[in-house]
Amino acid sequence: QHSNAEQYSQSQHLTFHIAHSPSALLHIIVPSFRMCRPTPLANKSSCPIQDVDEKSHRESNNDPPLVVARRTLDRGTLLACASLLLLITGMSITFPQMQTRRDELGCDSLCYGTMTSVRSALGLVGTAVIGRLSDRNGSLLARTLGSFGTGRRRSMMGDDGRGQSNNNVPSGRRACLYLGTIATLAGLCIAVSMNSLRGLWLSMIPGALLQHNFDVYKAFLSEYHNDLDNLETAKEDDDAADGKTRGNYRNPAAPASSRAGSVGKLGMAVGISFMIGPTMAAMLSPTFQTAAYFAIGCTLTSGLTIFYMPLPVASSAQHNNNSSSSNAESNAICDKEQHSQNKKTEFTLINLLKLKTPKSRAAMTLLVIRMNMALAFHIFNTIWPASLRERFDFGPSDHARFMSFIGITYAFSQGFLAKRLVRTWGKDGKVYVLMACCAILGAGRYIAYYTQSLAVIYATFLFIINALGTMNTVLTADTGSIAPSDEIGSLFGLLQSAENAAGMLGPFMGGAISRYVGKDAPLIAVVGVYGCMFAFVSWGYERCVVSLGVDDVAMKGSTTGREEVKKSI
User: Fold this and answer.
1) CA 85, CA 413: separation in Å to the nearest integer?
2) How far apart are CA 416 and CA 414, in angstroms?
């Protein structure tokens, strides 16, 4: 029973990190994401990862900039979801064997607890470092590993009159995605080749330190949306100057719901993959070696998908300006880009604590909410698995069904519910959506802990997971809207580092409260945290985050503003 509880605790811990930093084959999943793409495709291509011929290159040159930007957003969202789904599906199929493997290698509760703390500490450092590296397109890593890809598939006419693809564009985000994929492969190879306690420890280190692809993909999508907002606003300005009607080229979906929809698709891919992996393991019952080999294959395919990720407009504009002829305008833009690479990011913990600028206050608000969400989860997780075992004698099959239910519910909330709630309530109603989510999370955990009915637990978690998925989607979309394109990665990394810090502190606080105050005292602490979050969101979210505005920050904060974006397509 202790082993089952520990295994369930591990699964719950993983669910949180996937959901906050947070799980089918590619030809099955790709059509489903085409059906729920954020904006309509202007030109339907045969395959998102198929090479483009000269004719399609020439047609792309004739497309309006907004059409190209929307196609880039659609294609990037599709490939990001496919890559993340493959990566997490491969990882999750090994989860059922992990507890058995730890027992065979002599890793007791103290060993596992220490490993969890070390993993959180490595993640605390790794998320911040990867976030900063992903913003630097001029770094050595970006110019070497990050240049391995197809760029934006933007064609240029060569001396012979033939179209040439704009490949080998340096990209810090693409380099970090490759780095995360390589780290995952290294961990799996170590686990397969070293069947010992030392191998168990060594296999954990690369992924915990360098595999933060989910956060990098969120930064990618945020940069796509910033480019689209730049072009839409620039088009409105041009139409106004020409005396045309405003708004003819605006995105049909509101910016907030469009961002929420893109982020929600990533979360839906995570939820589906987290459901597919354990289900396949339960049906096929593979050995750890077989599961690890399958995971290696999925990870390699995920890395291949990264090769075809389209770069945002700003990244390609910087590369094109640096490689163009030396005229006065290009030199001025190059100097501007070089300055942006050398400047210090505003999104550091010290800068946020000063609260001097509207962006720092907005980022600090998001950090406080994220950290308290993580803290509440980890405190609750110290008493939840034991409570399930005592009331319902939960076994492995019960855990598998429960986790599959959580996975599919989370996928629904991220892929469908969140975007529709944001669209229905609008920009000003987001505060009420977040307040409702806080109330549901607090009340739902209280009901689930004390009920004696398993059906009530499932019904309660239906609301809890939908509230969690909606809240994560709204917070992630707003995070991408407050930062300029060259600092999005740093902000996502900082927020994830705060969650990892809460992951180190939460279990200790939950254990201490349970031991010195009372068995059920951690539940009261969790409800209290959600109550404080409810009050905090009501007091400060609108004035600090919502009022900042998407378009104002995207235009004024980005070092590659709308003029460069217009010229680059």
Assistant:
1) 17
2) 6
Angle between helix 430-450 and helix 454-482 axes, rounded to 10 deg: 150
d(C-alpha 124, C-alpha 127), whole Å:
6
The tokens for 304 are: 């291949």
Give dist(CA 212, CA 13) in Å, integer.
16
Pair 348, 477: CB distance under 8 Å: no
| Dist. CA 167–CA 322, nearest whole Å | 14
Report the candidate in 3, 222, 198, 170 with the shortest Cα–Cα distance to residue 96: 3
Question: Rounded distance, CA 519 to CA 516, Å?
Answer: 9
User: What is the rounded CA–CA span in Å between residue 41 and residue 71?
Assistant: 6
List, in order, residues 6 or more apart from 238 with CB less than 8 Å away: none
* 547 secondary structure, DSSP code: G
- 3-class DSSP assignment, residue 362: helix
Q: Which two tokens stand for residue 345?
A: 């990011």
Count the neighbouring beta carbons within 10 Å of the beta carbon of residue 437. Answer: 28
Longest dimension (CA), the chain: 79
Task: Summarize pLDDT for 283-297 with one digit per residue, the tens.
Answer: 777 888 888 999 999
* pLDDT tens digits, 436-459: 999 999 999 999 999 999 999 999
Tally of CB atoms within 10 A around 153: 22
Counted residue by residue, the chain has a size of 569
Name the token pair of 352.
């946020």
Q: Are 490 and 564 in contact (CB under 8 A)?
A: no
Tell me how far the alpha carbon of residue 417 is from its chain's centroid. Answer: 17
HEC assignment per residue over 85-97: HHHHHHHHCCHHH
Q: What is the 3-state secondary structure (H, E, C) of 107-141?
A: CCHHHHHHHHHHHHHHHHHHHHHHHHHHCCCCCHH
Number of CB atoms found within 10 A of residue 283's CB: 8
- Angle ∠(221,223,229) on CA atoms, nearest 5: 105
DSSP bridge pairs for 155: 165
Burial of 521 (0-12, 13-18, 19+ CB in 10 A): middle
- 11-20, 257-266, 372-381, 410-419: range with lowest mean pLDDT: 11-20
Helix (H) or strand (E) holding 157: strand 155-157
Q: Look at residues 474, 438, 444, 468 and name the one whose alpha carbon lies nearest to residue 456.
A: 444
Q: How far apart are CA 225 and CA 445, in angstroms?
A: 35
The pair of structure tokens assigned to 332 is 């001025």
> Over the stretch 242-264, which tens digit does the pLDDT of each residue have?
665 544 444 444 566 677 777 77
- Sign of the dihedral defined by the CA atoms of residues 404, 410, 416, 420, in that order: positive
